[in-house]
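Design job #97: recover the sequence.
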């Protein structure tokens, strides 16, 4: 599976952004798609999957998937400076029920930078 993320940028606190990730591959239907992020000096963390949201983004971020377009989205509202990070889309075989571990991810997209100013 190949992943291409886009949509990052600079936004003021309280604003919104929508990230997109275009997926391709012959067996794409077997994969769940999700989002991770990595802030400077921190470990990469799972943000949203079809069955999970990190506590820090619940109620503000929404993941969705358009199967016709083979695209997964991350709608981010009420952004905070602490949301500043490189955001990565990820593909995994099987959905899982909780946060995805890094080792469970089969493919990564390139990061897209989200910067939230205060």
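Job complete. Output follows.
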């Amino acid at each position: 599976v190949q992943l291409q993320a886009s949509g990052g940028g600079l936004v003021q606190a309280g604003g919104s952004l929508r990230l997109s990730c275009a997926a391709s591959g012959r067996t794409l239907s077997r994969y769940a798609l999700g989002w991770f992020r990595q802030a400077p000096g921190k470990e990469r963390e799972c943000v949203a999957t079809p069955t999970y949201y990190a506590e820090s983004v619940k109620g503000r971020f929404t993941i969705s998937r358009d199967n016709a377009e083979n695209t997964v989205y991350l709608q981010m509202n009420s952004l905070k400076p602490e949301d500043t990070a490189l955001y990565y889309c990820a593909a995994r075989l099987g959905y899982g029920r909780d946060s995805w571990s890094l080792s469970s991810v089969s493919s990564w997209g390139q990061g897209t930078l989200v910067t939230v100013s205060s």
